[in-house]
Fold each of these.
Amino acid sequence: MRRLRALEPLAWVGPAVLLIAVVVLWPVIEMIRSSFLKISRFGVVQGGNGLANYEKLFGEKDFADIMVRSVIWVVAVVVLTVLISLALAQLFNQHFPLRKIARWALIAPWAASVLMTAIIFKWMLDPEVGVINQLRMKLGLIDAMGGAAADQLGDASTAMPWLVFVAVFVSVPFTTYALLAGLATIPSDVYEAARMDGAGRLRTYWSITLPLLRPALTVAALINVMNVFNSFPIIWAMTHGQPGYSTATSTIFMFILKGSDIGESAAMSVVNFGMVIVLTVIFLKVSRWNKEVT
Amino acid sequence: MKMKLAGGAALGLATVLVLSSCGSGGGDDQGSGDGQVTLKMVAADYGDGPGKPNSGETFWKGVVDEFQAANPTIKVDVQVINWNDIDNQVATMIQNGQVPDILQTGDYSGFVKDGLLHKADEVLSPNVSGDMLEKFAEFGKVDGTQYGIPFVSSARALFYNKDLFDKAGIKEPPKTWDDLKAAAGKLKEAGVTQPFGLPLGQEEAQAESFLWMLGNGGGYKDDSGKWAIDSPQNVETFTYMKGLVEAGLTTPNPGTKDRKTVWEDFGAGKVGMVNGGPMSIPIFDAAGLKNYGVVPIPGRTGPLDTTLGVMDWIMAFNKNGHAAEIKKFFDFFYTGSAAQKISDTYKLLPVTNGGIEKLSGDEKLKPFLDALPNASFYPFQDPKWATVNPAIKQTIGGAVKDGPAKVLGELQKTAEAAG
């Protein structure tokens, strides 16, 4: 009986461990295995392929551009999201009339499916009928509908900012709520003490709010880094990574490769997986370094 | 109490085990002893998606119900997948060993090399295969043996908006590239935002490109069967197209535009001319456009005497050993009302002599039926096409932006390296 009791914890954690093994570890192992196999476009495994998939991937003309773009994409989206969310969280932490409604409204972009949001923006930007272009025409920013000037998603230099905008738009609600929760944990007597010591608003924010908000900020930013790096629907729905590969990130490139070479696509997945881990480790290092300073 | 809890945990563990085993398996249930056989079929969706009256699910349910009523021992399980995902999903099925019995999609050739398919004569009665258009059946052969069974076909022609042509004062539809350029210029002056609709985006860039290549005696391969994507004719063709784009006579940024969007714009009266097929007619109808004409596609010096023909295929996999049952289903499909119904519902062209005869009275389809016998096809029998095609879809639009020689040269390199 006692022996059975000793085994009891195992029975409790067992299912969870097994679940993780089946839905997390096993696919990762399969992914890594696939990246060393020769697999036809039609899914037939034709044997081992050594490092050839990786060699082919690193030899792709657009590979370097895509990796650099992926990092810029993550940094731009996460930095903008965090800055905007910090301001919004501060705002929503104040008491003002209709605050409840405003807080509810902020949930909308989060509650809507990301794919749906992306498709809506694609149509709002449509060169022939898009509402954003009609607005730009009324404002005199473009001369006519339908032309190249009205086609902002058709060129990487104007498409990229819109993609970043939509990604920030869908990331802000979650981040704001995470920070809002963080703000709620800061006891008010700390602020009182600061006021007694004669600290100004800016000084209070910098020396009290931000440091005490750090745990929430770290978690929110980290989740965003991983989400944005693996973000697929926004770019796929709005540009397909086109023209050429000029708006593709590594996740999009992985999906496109799947249409021609599954092994190479698996290699891209492994590189992607590695990138997320590296980004996460760097991020955690940086935030811990902050901790030692304060 | 403690025992109870441990029991609960064990139950949870068991549930997880059962759940995780659900994913695999399936696929080859060889009947349950009473002679019942289930055929697993995967098909592409020619309709507007799930829930729409013309969805693939609805179409196949009608066919299968009728078939099962006549053949009570055979059950057909149809999974309909949209065109964008079907290749990837089928590849995943095969990679995981969940091979279907029947697949209906856009390509068959890649499965032949690995010996996955039944030969056509193992799953088709002679009277059915005898009725197929010979040229089409020919394309179903790899090394002299037929594996791919033509399912439906389509051809392309130039659609032009007669109202817009009148408004711009254009007397007759273009016959040559220069006619086309002149007409596009007049349309632009008359305020048409996209005089010529040019979809070179991910959806079907390979089709629009091929139609233009044909106009200058080019193509993806030369006469000797070697890849010739960056041939001088093709470079010349794309240079001409680039001129049109830069003059603002086409859809802006063609390399990012899908054919569906451009066809919808044509239906909305925003596009003067566009290359389309029978399958674009329902889109124009839905948008309310009535007054349009259909003519052969202009080439550099005169109208094309050929056009792009596209054939979709149905094929039988040999893994589950259901040849006899598949044969019954195929014979039912081609000799019954189903093949006819697919043409009626989706405006796709039939692949049998009998089917073409039945449709010959349809005025709207006539230009396409006439073009079918002399159609040109993608080099899809070359296994490399499966690698080259996605690259074309993604990048060929750059040839009218960054420079034809460079972009076509890259694609040529991809074609020569692929293997």
Note: The longest strand of chain B covers residues 37-44.
Amino acid sequence: MKLSALRPVTLVLSRELALTALLLLGVSFVVFVILFLAPGDPFSVLLEGQMPSHEARAGVREALGVPRTWYVQYVSWLGNLLRGNFGTSIRTGLPVFGEIVRVGLSTLYLTLGSMLVTLLIAVPIALHSSVRGATPLNRPFTLLAYLVSSLPVFWLGYVAIYLFSHKLGVFPLVSAASASADRAWLYSLLPICVLGIGNGTVSEVVRYLREELSRVMAEDYIRTARAKGASVWRHAFKEGLLIPMTEIIASKIPFILGGAVIVEQVFNWPGMGRMAWQAAQDRDFPAIMGIVMIAATLVRLGSLLQRVVYVAVNPRASKQRRGAGWAE
Amino acid sequence: MTRYSQIAGEGRDASDLPVWRSADTLDLAYIGYGLLIVALVLVSYVLGVFNWLPHDPEQIRFDLLNAPPGSAGHLLGTDFLGRDILSRLIVAIQAYFLPGLVAIVISLMVGTTLGALAGYRGGEVEVLVTYVNNLVDSFPRLVLILLVIAAFKADIYYIMIIVGVTGVPVVASLVAGKIAFLRQKHFIEAALVLGLPSHVIVLKHILWYHCGPLLVIRATIGMGEAILIETSLSYLGFGVQEPMPSWGNMVQAGANYFFQGKFWPSTAPALAILLTILGFHLLGDGLNSILEDRGGK
Amino acid sequence: MTGAPLLEIENLRTYFYARSKQAFIRAVDGVTLSIARGETLGVVGESGSGKSVTALSITGLVSAGPGVISGTIAFRADGVEHNLLQDLEQYVRLKERDGRIVEVSKDEPGWRKAVERLMAPVRGKEIAMIFQSPKSALNPFARVGDQITEAIRLHTRAKNPGEAKERALHWLERVKIDSPRLRFDNHPYGLSGGMCQRAVIAMALASEPSLLIADEPTTGLDATIQSEIVGLLAELKAEFGIATLLISHDIRAISRLADNVAVMYGGTVVEHGPAPDVLAPGFAPKHPYTTALLASIPSVQNVRDKGYLTVVEGEVPDAVDLPRGCRFYARCNRVTDDIRDKCAHHEPELKEVTPGHHVRCWLSAE
């Protein structure tokens, strides 16, 4: 790599980084507005924890000098967020941030694993249909992808538990928390596969990859590669596979995180999804707010990563191109 | 073997055949299936409104708990309270139809407006719309809904508003992308040269003539998404509440009996969901390939 | 020009299928051509006459279905004769009615696999191609130099990277790219159209092929760059003498470079002969289409003679619905009453009128 080639890349990336920060600011504002508008004054909860009565709260506000205007509230709340102070969970009384970090890792494990499963299903189907053209297997595969994407994921989870744990006994029927360490990975295989298959994105991933790959295969430079007897894959890989793969996966992170909420519930998986569910049950504002912020951050980081890959492999990337969202 | 055959009657003028004549048979089959599902949904809605059902969906029979399909005139069997599953499946459409329409209307109206603004105006408006799109896309839909539920104790209509709002970016991107495509083909310049006012170009020539099929496809997919979201929420206990049936709470309730080997109370609604969503997907796909990809083949 | 020709195409048909009309597009419909070693054959014709599809058919790069459906392509290099359409019949079934193909069944995957096998020893190594719009012909994701090095390492004895790079730089220099060492590291987007085409030519020559197919090498370039590229091709021809199939609708480029010329019309060759004969406006036995085509070139000669430029009246025949008789009949201004009936209903053969000069016209058949 030459230094001259690196400079526009860092330029582009610093812009992406700034955009990510700006979007997260927007996210925090939306969350703030929702909580601000919510009945029951969750902000007194957020800022001061549980207080017995309105008078007491008001008194504490006065004493702490907590201002009444919404924008000052927002700024002080945002300041707390930036310091990693997400408040205290109403249910457990523990700091939310620490709790999210603790369960977040297992959710990350679940979602990353299931992304891999989704790709393992979708990529071969997309490759098959875009490279081989019209083969007899083409349509059944596509139909299969649609079928899989239409399944309600928790029902798929039940079927999987019934089949593999109950009937066949392949996987243990215990939760990951109580499973002995050496078999924990085996247990996790089932929810990962269920989420990977049932997150509802398989058909879209297949379609997007197939379209992009077919488009690239029709490019002049691929014809040139074939005409000179070179490997088509060598030439098509970056634009035809690597870029679309990162694009579609990055844009599907929200769906996979949403699916994780369900799958964690089905499999009693101790992750962010279960925590979110619990928080919504209990109207545990600090917890659910923290989870929304962290989930949105994960989504943005995914997009950022996608942009990094895009910029890294594409020498023309300094010229702005629209992201994955426009291709759907 | 791929067969290519020339239709008889050589020497006729070489004008294009009507869409359905030249379409792939399988695409037509997809569309046919999708339309059938749409018709079934509409019919079920009407049946539910007028209460024309095989059984009373809320009649509890303790002598017929989790009865298998076909028993005692219950075509799809009964659930854990002995209620007729088929009737409940039909009535459950009530839970989706209007809320689903709310979601669709929001995402289409707002999405089209933003997309048209971004695509037609370009420049800073486009930057702003892209920002809004990315902002909305940053929230996992289900997690955002949980937040709103926690904040407002939201019912299905609130939830569908969120579904509609989170569906905005896709529609906006589609419309903006279409306009960008038309611009590339110098369609818009041509219209401007003809002296057409902007609102005529945008409303009639762009949205009506060129985005119509696309929006119809989006609307069907939107109904599918509404059903899936409600299903997930029902599973989590936040969707439509008993005794009002929804496919989601039926799967959820039936799932408790899954391990006793009684599959149908949850499988029947799960299949209803599967077949319906599949229908919407295939309708979208079929319409897309015969209406949108036509030039490309 | 001794011995068997380097490339011999016989009765090649490449069809496409218009789904919306449920009809065949007879892009190449019975083309017969040959190229001797060291010969440059120019192929001229209007857009849509099947020139480029012929070139793609030779190298098995036709991607739309049904594609190549019949014919033979013999290619002799290194003392080995390759039949590039060997066993084609087993993948294709044709149904004819009234002497017209009305149905094609083709085992596309099988055919594609067979083509790739047949092409493996030939494509890129023995037959190299240059395409139009060079900017899109180069891989935008790879450095220009690496793309040339790849061809060298694939097809020549220079296998180690350092040696291959030296060869690539040599070729970049040879096609007169200024500061080749700098350009070697560039991605195509940083190069001008003319430079890209030079790089593409370097890439084609770098594998030291026995046949070069140049498919409209000057199309999509600025006028001044066009003549530079033609000049470069002329120099390379003089230096290496590689047999070349030069496809172009730029008749000036053809007349400067070609030894022989084939004129294509409506998917078939209507005239084929030595370049000076075919391209001389006054030369007697000639297809009326060639005459009309030549009269339409903006040249000093034409303008001086007539004071204006003529156009070929009418339109290129619709490849979907080709006429039964002579393909040029509807536009021909030399039909006489004696032959009108034949012109309208029977297609003339490609007939030798003077040694080495063939014309497909009832006028010359008399």
Note: Chain A touches chain B through 63 residues (CB under 8 Å).
Amino acid sequence: LLLSVVCFAPQNYPLYIRSVPTENELKFHYTVHTSLDVVDEKISAMGKALVDQRELYLGLLYPTEDYKVYGYVTNSRVKFVMVVDSSNTALRDNEIRSMFRKLHNSYTDIMCNPFYNPGDRIHSRAFDSMVNSMMMQVC
Amino acid sequence: MSRQAGRGTENKKMNSELFTLTYGALVTQLCKDYENDEDVNKQLDKMGYNIGVRLIEDFLARSNVGKCHDFRETADVIAKIGFKMYLGITPSITNWSPAGDEFSLILENNPLVDFVELPDNHSSLIYSNLLCGVLRGALEMVQMAVDARFVQDTLKGDSVTEIRMKFIKRIEDNLPAGEE
């Protein structure tokens, strides 16, 4: 089950937050934000190698009891984070990767919308429906 | 006969994202400069008109089409040659009025609006209004007064984009005597 999709600006403030409604949404946000530290760590640790391979997918950031958190960072340092239910073992690494790729493509389209100012919160019907379909598909 | 000498008919290619983003930057800048959408629409139309009156010369020089005998022929030339040459698309022509003085250009995909999502506070903005101005300006230069306007727009949730063209009148040549 895909629980949450979040995009962060290069300065690490959220551009887009979307999660399935739960009682403890705060805990969610907490999990996602702490994952940013891992993202930064990963970038600085293997920064050189990442650039060389043009590999944007960071893989599993960290597993908690209930969630698995995956990360993806573009060359412009925009971060995408997805939270997946730990109980779901059917989801393969490759699928996560292609979902991130999809997210990245959608994000690119939004950046190309002349009415969107870079750095603003994302309010886009197209992006919403894309995330929706991803959440439906994975459920 | 050698009218097109010096003016190649080859199609130069341009990156479509750059084109779309350039037009987007133009429209959003206009939105910042003017208070309401109606003024922006008017301004786009005016800019289009100024493009049209110039573009027609280029069009005639490059396409080598002759005089059109009726409005139907004009419609064909606009859709199959004009749009093809400058936007790389071929709109279809439908909905002729019984009198034959009105028709619709249906654009299945409009290269100007790739990526664009109209924000809620610009609901009356006619994003591609430049095109209407271009058509009006260009046809005016060949002695045809027309009215062009958008009646459907994919940006507003319609399935296609439709430009309605209406023939108003022939503009009589005001050539000085002795010149014909």
Note: The CA atoms of residues 125 and 131 of chain A lie 10 Å apart.
